[in-house]
Amino acid sequence: MNVLCPLCDENITLLDVAQREAHADRCLEAMEGGHKLVVKEETAISTELKVETALIEKPLSDERDERLERIARKDKELELTYEAHLTKPKKRRNFKERKSEPPLKRSIPFFKILTFPGSKFAVDAFCYGPLEVDAYFLTHFHSDHYGGLSGSWKWGPIYCTPATARLVHYKLNVDPKYLCEVEIGQPCIVNGVRVFFLDANHCPGSSIILFNNKVLHTGDFRASPEILETVRGYTTKLDKCYLDTTYLDPKRVFPTQSYVISRCVEHCLSVQSTNQRSFFLKPRENRLLVMVGSYTIGKERLAIAIAKALDSKIWTPEPKLQILNLLKDNDLDELLLKSGNGVTCQVHLVSMSELNKEKLAERWKFLKKHYTHLLAFVPTGWTFRGTFDPASLPCPTSGTIGICKVPYSEHSSYEELQNFCNGIQIGKIIATVGSAHLNILQQWETR
Hints:
five-stranded mixed beta sheet, globular, Rossmann fold, alpha/beta, 32% helix, Metallo-beta-lactamase, Chain A
């Protein structure tokens, strides 16, 4: 089963999860900058090599590379406030200027279409041209799921959570008349089918969708005992489950989010309290800066927990602040710095692409005037192997930088998938992400 980029149609089958996400993020950045996406005919192997190289060495295009170099030179010449130093707003693409044409027609994976007596629905399927369906469903606002949506959309109603609807309208200019908001846990009748949106424990506004109490589509989710109990509150037996199999691999076993968050918080408090300046220098109160990597949305829980522990507000670049305001998350709203200089905060929520040695070193030239040391958290599950040892997290000495890669994932681990599927009777499990271990699903099905 080939996996194509939802934005440029490039074959990304052989790329791992992080590389697929990075590829889609670069495509989205190019689209927002008004650049045309050009796809070359390549094998999946050559695509893999090209993207791996791009992840390490170069951005999407030479033009973007030159633009970044100009920005870097400007940063070196001027001492800017922190907002100006990090926040470089991109020109927002006006999707409504595009001609009202359907997305390019291409073959749609079978698991994107759900059929019921008298009804047919499409889930996370917006880049396949107009479909002969009664309604569309969007599980959450990540580019590999909403790809194909734009201001020219007119092919049918889209059911999603209120937070997702606000993001789709704001970022993609989709006409609100096509966006049907469904609150989490509230019943909704769509063309005679009873539908429930339930929390997916993935990113803000994300949902798993239960149809007629018999068919479950998980979108992207982080399975947990709470989610299992929620589903079992509606039904004890599913005819079908369309399962997020991102980490369907016995090697992909990593800690719970709560465990990782608590260990990261403890590490920050430890660094803040024990990292002292040299005996020969004038004493200076420690002031730790914590950067937490994120995507357009996602990973906010880690930043929130650290901010509460350090009694700090959270700074984020203005474009991201506007997006986070749309989530209407009370915990997050109370902590976000709405205005003022970012150097007043000890927690910064930034793009994942900012957290590499080169960029952090460049930022630190400015930030070291305001902080004694820096911890950067790269939260992802895809690099994790073996046992997570919090004691191995770097403890930067004063004036230095520590980069912490932690197994904080918003997808289910193998063990969590197994526990979820074994906790409820499922007649047929259908994978929504390619995997080399699909035979495992048959063992989890109820015979």
